[in-house]
Specification:
CATH topology of the largest domain: Rossmann fold
Strand content: 25-35%
CATH architecture of the largest domain: 3-Layer(aba) Sandwich
Radius of gyration: 27 Å
CATH class of the largest domain: Alpha Beta
Shape: globular
Distance between the termini: 75 Å
Number of strands: 36
Number of domains: 5
CATH superfamily of the largest domain: P-loop containing nucleotide triphosphate hydrolases
Structural class: alpha+beta
Number of helices: 15
Length: 603
Amino acid sequence: MQRRPPSLIRNIAIIAHIDHGKTTLLDSLLKQSNVFRTNEAIPERVMDSYDQERERGITIFAKHTSIEYDGCKINIIDTPGHADFSGEVERILGMVNCVLLLVDAQEGPMPQTRFVLSKSLQKGLKPIVVLNKIDRPHADPDRVLNETFDLFSELGATDEQLDFRYCYASGIGGFAMHHMRDKQTDLRPMLELIIAAAPPPPGDLDKPFLMQVATIGYDSFVGRQACGRVLDGVIKKGDSVSRVMRDGTIERARITRIEGYFGIHKIEMEEATAGDIVGIYGMEEVMIGDTLCHPDTIQQLPPITLEEPTVSIDLLVNNSPFAGKDGTHVTMNKIRERLMQEKKANISLRIEETTQDAITVSGRGELHLSVLIEAMRREGYEMTLGKPRVVLKEVNGEKHEPIERVHIEVPQDYSGSVIEELSRRKGEMQALDTNEHGITRIEFLIPTRGLMGYRNKFLTMTRGLGILTSIFERFEAWKGDIPGRSRGVMVSIGDGKANGYACFNLQERSTLFVSPGDEVYEGMVVGENSRENDLVVNVTKAKQLTNMRASGTDENIMLTPARIFTLEQAIDYIDEDEQIEVTPNFIRIRKRFLKEMDRKKFK
């Protein structure tokens, strides 16, 4: 790959609220940039390469690609839109010189739009606004453009930042326009805008090499990869560099490989120059935030700082009667080793060993934590999870807890019950309006504790028609007790296989979590009681057989399908005295005390 001066490079990140079309727009950009072979199979959402991203339909990790246009190389970083993964956005903003802010032309700026935009403005970046999805039936780009300008102003943008450039686009339609009356052809108007409005990266080819590590990768053949933007100078394969760690320790290393991107493919490079975003190999212990520099000119760049975690969960060894039957990694040593490996590559998670038999993992939300646990589960790990809890801070001797800004869209008929429930959970309503289509928008400030266990209830309450998104706002004084789950559970009294006859008799007063033939053990939660108390039941009980012929109606039992929990739903559901048993193929809820179960509690 030929050496380019920084003036022919553009480094941009695409930022937006969840589901505003970042990945779809990037798909269209890549297809129109001819980076694929003519016979190459191109999957939908090509940048979402991680299996959980494809299954969930969301972007979890920031990913890098590049395209060529008009003699310029445009490096593009696709970022997550979900608030739980905002740490990915924060750490890559230092690699780029401009951001493409996508705003849905119907929905307008949303909570995550506010967060990513404020971070970009604080970094001094001047965003380019893209009003996306303008081909939607109820799109109103003029209103949304005004709302976006108001948001810039509200977040304290400078005069230069307020004078942002913008265009109209449709990611799925594959076109962009400078003006609404322009012809809808392709995405060239957007690319022209990027070349004209995005500043080239600063950097001097004649200065000594300097780079800060923003992301970490791993290749089983060549080892650990440090990815970042080359700030100054040139780095070649075989060069010696100094790695300056967070504590000031210096370590020498030799570069074994340099990789860049063309489209979604990694390509090996002989050298990288100021302005390039590349991955370099040769340092096995490199960490995010480390400074890489020329051995003769040692300097340390300021560390990468992220917002604090708000939710934590305890991981323990699986000690249920079924321990070791399903997974391959079941000991605390194996779990600890895997989590310490994660700690090196993912600085938005806080991982600390609290006791000898428990490790506490803290992150931005329940989804953030469940993605890690789901990944471990798929790798063959077994573990026990406690109930998630919020991370507290002490300010002037007073206990403070995280508060989230919640944005809700529901059909008008369900708005009253949603407002009532959130108010019961210590929420304070900030905004309420209903549009001409009968959709009510509500904005609340609510403690993170109040949202725990609410999302499943919200979907049921709104018949699946509601949209709820939230983002951390600030820490505030403790809001007092918040009511938890209103219903009790049914707990198995013994071990064995769930029986169809017992399930049939129990389903009248409960929602069952097990089906006939499922293995159960004493203390395992097998259903939700229709009342608020917990109940011990015998789900393995079979019908007594006699020599009397049963009537035909007695032989047919109609069972309602069992409720199967996903990992996030289980984390959301459990109460203080319950735990989750997680194995590669099963998610079970159980009471903490298992064999020592106090039966009197359930009478």
